[in-house]
Design goal:
Order of helices and strands: HHHHHHHH
Strand content: under 5%
Largest sheet: none
Helix content: over 70%
Shape: flat
Number of helices: 8
Length: 202
């Protein structure tokens, strides 16, 4: 039981700590609003847990290459949209970026959609789900460990950035927004290339 829980912790941090589109988005949002970053993070976590649950119980099969190509294309388009949104908001000052409570649902859906459409995330959980077939008890502890790891990361990482945002000047904030837009666009272009390349090669 403890071994499964620790394994879940390590897998959870392994999934959420590496720099990717979600972390770039969370960092950018946390510079303006902790609540928006947190809502986006919980949306991403919901997609992670949903995929893991469906895959572990055999309720979803992602072996279809056509489905993965579609995920790449739609995920790439969504990332390009987020890159454009980040570029448009590059001149927004942090003091003007407090969101109304009704906006939090939009950010939750944004994180959920981005993670659900990311074929790399899907591939990661597909491999992890193989570890969860030993027994239901082991799966529950594995699930709990991963939920704790991902939950702590999406809560504490944006909080640290939000609390230190006053140390970042407007010029640096502008550069960070532009870098975020470029990185998100790069991830989007990579996914689009992967998706269309699969159709061209078939």
């Amino acid at each position: 039981m403890l071994a499964s829980f620790v394994q879940g912790l390590l897998l959870g941090y392994g999934a959420c700590v590496p720099i990717g589109p979600i972390n770039i988005l969370l960092m950018n949002l946390a510079l303006h609003s902790y609540r928006s970053a947190l809502s986006t993070g919980f949306g991403a976590m919901s997609a992670d847990m949903l995929y893991l649950t469906l895959l572990s119980y055999g309720l979803l099969s992602l072996d279809d290459s056509f489905w993965m190509r579609l995920l790449s294309i739609f995920g790439g388009l969504f990332l390009c949209y987020l890159a454009y949104a980040s570029w448009r908001a590059r001149h927004a000052r942090s003091s003007h970026r407090h969101l109304a409570p009704r906006s939090l649902l939009r950010h939750y859906v944004q994180g959920l959609t981005l993670t659900a459409l990311n074929p790399y995330t899907v591939g990661f959980w597909s491999s992890v789900s193989l570890l969860a077939h030993s027994s239901q008890d082991d799966y529950l502890y594995l699930f709990a460990g991963m939920a704790l790891a991902i939950g702590s990361w999406i809560t504490l990482m944006p909080l640290a950035i939000y609390r230190s945002r006053h140390l970042i000047g407007d010029s640096v904030l502008l550069v960070l927004s532009l870098v975020s837009a470029v990185v998100l666009a790069g991830f989007g272009a990579m996914l689009l290339w992967r998706g269309f390349e699969g159709f061209w090669g078939s």
